[in-house]
Design brief:
binds NADP nicotinamide-adenine-dinucleotide phosphate, Dihydrofolate Reductase, subunit A, globular, alpha/beta, ten-stranded mixed β-sheet
């Protein structure tokens, strides 16, 4: 893997490579590169993958657009996060499982005051989720459900019976993005990672609460009418983000942008 931006004349990441060659970055090197900034408040980062022509999924999943290195970065970003926020449709379509405790990151998480694995927080109005799945019944840390005050109380009880913790972050059936961030921060979750999907990410963007986007640009064309990485109503004025790093591996670009 090579760092294309910021431009550097060093090749520090040479696991198994000759000097001057780009090698595979170790998980430690990736964790350093993607460290959360030091901030007092919450920091919401998104991690998404897109084809060259803007598709955020193929055949209903993002995996066909991904690569081994993308999955290593995906795992690293999870390992750095306090909580992974995800829309219910992605949970349903991608069969989300609880986050794992990974020995490679154990020391780093302990030093950062984090538990062994991030919690998964599912954003849902309907609570139409299969609460018998391991995501709810056997996570290392209880799975959170973010929903609105008008959510169906029977579904809320079912979620709680399964072991999930339900957080209300909206007055109606739905979640208000800024209140979701606030509710997670109130629980001490400041290093936030959202893995989408596009409908959820679009709302974080529109609400102006997305601080950072880690976008993998996959060297693939898909055509078709797949969703882009952020959907929903357009914002009034396009929001400007600043690139902070670009890495390359096997034709995949791992870009990172921060809100201006
Ligand atoms: N390219 C990528 O990196 C990437 C990442 C993730 C997912 N994906 C792909 O994206 C597709 C799914 O994404 P999607 O955009 O259709 O769905 P999504 O954003 O994952 O989930 C949408 C669902 O989340 C809940 N939700 C969203 N906003 C809410 C709010 N404000 N309040 C309450 N609930 C809210 C609703 O759940 P309820 O219906 O339960 O109320 C809604 O139906 C899949 O094909 C997946 O593979 C791609």
């Amino acid at each position: 893997m090579r760092q294309l931006f910021p431009v550097t004349d060093q090749t520090p990441h040479v696991e198994g490579a000759e000097p001057g060659e780009s090698g595979r970055w170790s998980l430690d090197e990736l964790a350093e590169a993607y460290a959360y900034p030091d901030t007092d408040g919450p920091w919401l980062r998104a991690n998404m993958v897109s084809s060259l022509d803007g598709a955020g999924q193929h055949d209903g999943r993002s995996h066909p657009l991904s690569s081994d290195t993308d999955m290593r970065i995906f795992g690293t970003l999870r390992a750095l996060a306090d909580v992974v926020v995800v829309g219910a449709e992605t949970v349903r379509l991608e069969g989300y499982r609880p986050a794992k405790a990974r020995s490679e990151f154990a020391e780093r998480r302990k030093a950062a005051g984090q538990g062994p694995a991030p919690a998964i927080a599912v954003v849902t109005a309907s609570l139409d989720l299969d609460f018998s799945l391991p995501l709810f019944t056997s996570p290392l840390v209880p799975t959170l459900i973010l929903t609105g005050a008008a959510a169906d109380p029977d579904r809320v009880r079912e979620a709680e019976r399964a072991g999930a913790e339900v957080l209300v972050a909206g007055d109606g059936p739905g979640v208000e993005p800024d209140r979701a961030v606030g509710a997670l921060a109130d629980r001490g979750h400041l290093r936030l990672l959202t893995e989408g999907g596009p409908r959820l990410l679009g709302q974080f963007v529109a609400a102006g609460v997305l601080d950072e986007l880690c976008l993998t640009v996959s060297p693939m064309l898909t055509a078709g009418d797949a969703q882009r990485i952020a959907g929903g109503p357009a914002v009034g004025v396009p929001q400007r983000f600043t690139p902070t790093s670009v890495l390359e591996d096997a034709g995949f670009l791992f870009t990172r942008y921060r809100r201006n």
